[in-house]
Amino acid sequence: MAEKKAFILRINPEVLKEVESWATDEFRSINGQIEYLLQQALLNRKKSMRKKKPDL
């Protein structure tokens, strides 16, 4: 498993409350939920980038 890097995150309290609720619904920690959401966003970005590239 890759080493994880810690960093400070400043987040709007309302957003944090929503993420906390979502994490609880999915049986994850807040940190785990944020990491999951970032991973999903990166996968979606990669998929959309592949669709935008013209076929050569």
Provide a concise account of the structure shown.
The protein is mainly alpha-helical and 56 residues long. The protein contains 2 helices and no strands. This is Arc-like DNA binding domain-containing protein.
Task: Describe the structure in your own words.
The protein is mainly alpha-helical and 56 residues long. The protein has a domain of 37 residues. The protein has two helices and no strands. Helix 1 crosses helix 2. The longest helix is centred in the C-terminal third of the chain and has 23 residues. The chain is elongated. InterPro entries: Arc_rbn_hlx_hlx, Ribbon_hlx_hlx. This is Arc-like DNA binding domain-containing protein.
Give me some keywords for this one:
56 residues, mainly alpha, 64% helix, elongated
Unreliable spans: none
Give the termini distance in whole angstroms. Answer: 37 Å
Q: Give the mean pLDDT.
A: 92
Care to count the β-strands? 0
- Please tell me what the overall shape is: elongated
For the report, how would you describe the main beta sheet? none
Radius of gyration: 15 Å
Provide a count of the helices.
2
Beta-strand proportion: under 5%
Helix content: 55-70%
Name the helix and strand elements from N-terminus to C-terminus, one letter apiece: HH
Protein name: Arc-like DNA binding domain-containing protein
Organism: Arcticibacter svalbardensis MN12-7
InterPro entries: Arc_rbn_hlx_hlx (IPR013321), Ribbon_hlx_hlx (IPR010985)
